[in-house]
Amino acid sequence: QVQLVESGGGLVQPGGSLRLSCAASGSIFSTNAMDWYRQAPGKQRELVATITSAGSTNYADSVKGRFTISRDNAKNTVYLQMNSLKPEDTAVYYCHAQIRRMGLALRDYWGQGTQVTVSS
């Protein structure tokens, strides 16, 4: 079985920073793209940032220049450094990864979500 466990959420003032982490564990053969999504109350889940296994990154326009996604392939961990946070960044943040287990096809896995609240 594979699990994605997120950490690092919390309450922060506008202009502050947070760093989210997501560690994948279990019988992992390989990991392809890893992403962060977020979902605010009453809104659809949206893609925030993506990083491929080779390290290529892509960001939503709303977070470009403020958020940085990175990964440690040896630890099967993805990070999201969030700077200059705004109240509109408030959401539940979800980690997603495309993982292949030994002898099985590539499939999608999701974390349980971590709350990020930006408020004074």
What key phrases describe this protein's structure?
0% helix; four-stranded antiparallel beta sheet; 120 residues; mainly beta
Describe this structure in words.
The protein is an all-beta fold and 120 residues long. It is built from no helices and eleven strands. Strands 2, 4, 5, 6, 9, 10 and 11 form a seven-stranded mixed sheet that branches. Strands 1-3-8-7 form a four-stranded antiparallel sheet, with no helix packed on it. It is elongated and about 50 Å long.
Topology (SSEs and partners):
Layout: E1 2-7, E2 10-12, E3 18-26, E4 28-39, E5 46-51, E6 57-59, E7 67-72, E8 77-82, E9 91-101, E10 106-110, E11 114-118
Parallel strand pairs: 2-11
Antiparallel strand pairs: 1-3, 3-8, 4-5, 4-9, 5-6, 7-8, 9-10, 9-11
Q: Can you summarize the main beta sheet?
A: 7 strands, mixed
- Dominant shape: elongated
Q: How many H/I helices?
A: 0
Main structural class = mainly beta
Terminal-residue CA separation: 40 Å
> What letter string, H or E per element, gives the SSE order?
EEEEEEEEEEE
DSSP strand count: 11
What is the alpha-carbon Rg in Å? 14 Å
What is the helical fraction, as a range of percent? under 10%
Low-confidence sequence ranges: none
Mean pLDDT metric: 96
Strand content: over 45%
Short description:
The chain has 120 residues and is an all-beta fold. The protein contains no helices and eleven strands. The N and C termini lie far apart (40 Å).
